[in-house]
Amino acid sequence: MSDLVLAVVAGGAIGLALGSLGGGGSVLAVPALIYLLGFTPVAATTASLVIVALTTATAVPAHARDGHVRWRTGLLFAAAGIGPAMLGGLLAARLPAAVLTVAFALVAAVAAAHMLRPRPAAADTARPVRPGRAVAAGAGLGAVTGVLGVGGGFLAVPALVGVLGLRMRAAVGTSLLVITVNSVAALALRAGTAEGLDWTVIGPFAGAAVLGAWDGRRLAVRVPGGTLQRVFALVLLVVAAVMLIDAGI
Fold it and tell me: How far, in Å, are 39, 76, 182 from residue 188 at the CA level?
């Protein structure tokens, strides 16, 4: 199968996850770029940021039209992560490939465990905002985005619900705004690692992801969110296991 076909298929799947779950798709972008398309870990994390930033930026307006983006809350949350995201981007370029691979696998496993955990019935109700915890959560999310090249939506959605008190649909839409800001911030200090990227692969990958995100938004209306999360979590567990085995662990 050609690299172009693989890029389109992988991009479509990642866009579906981002559009339906508000995150998680980028956790598959890095392993897809490494194992299917032959990118190095550093190049894959940089390319993932490009793909994720484009996909989420184009998905935000549709969620905003539905009234599911809290602009003020999202921008404040994202602001706390800009500095850590930029520092994380600098650090990623200096880490050994094996360290990035193991770290990414562990994050994927944590994301899967979170998705498989039963969601309390109260998760869809508003909660009081705790500014200190909001800043800490935003900073942590930014750091993960910068180092590993993932948007962090699988962390942003529960943080926006549990820390900032957003309802689930608003958290999904707002997380896309947060992911966009963090991804662009991380890319700002990765210009040096973007020079050798294969844009003939990244372009179709990103295009398919953008289209997939639109379909994912419609899919979320028809398929129960819990079902989507469980299927995606199982895929993440397989990806994490493959990456750990590849790293010799």
Answer: 20, 19, 10
CA 244/CA 47 separation, integer angstroms: 21
The residue whose two tokens read 């172009």 is 4
pTM metric for this prediction: 0.73
Residue showing tokens 């039209």: 65
**Rounded distance, CA 11 to CA 212, Å?**
7
Measured from the Cβ of residue 96, the count of other Cβ atoms closer than 10 Å reads 10
Q: Which two tokens stand for residue 49?
A: 């940021």
pLDDT digits (tens, 9 = 90+) for 104-143: 788 778 777 876 776 554 444 455 556 677 788 788 888 8
Contact in structure between 88 and 146 (CB atoms under 8 Å): yes
Query: Do you know the residue count of the chain?
Result: 249
Alpha carbon distance 106, 119 (integer Å): 22
Closest CA to 152 of 23, 52, 11, 12: 23
Q: At what angle do helices 97-116 and 225-246 cross, to 10 degrees?
A: 150
Q: How far apart are CA 174 and CA 78, in angstroms?
A: 10
Closest of 69, 155, 71, 150 to residue 115, by C-alpha: 155
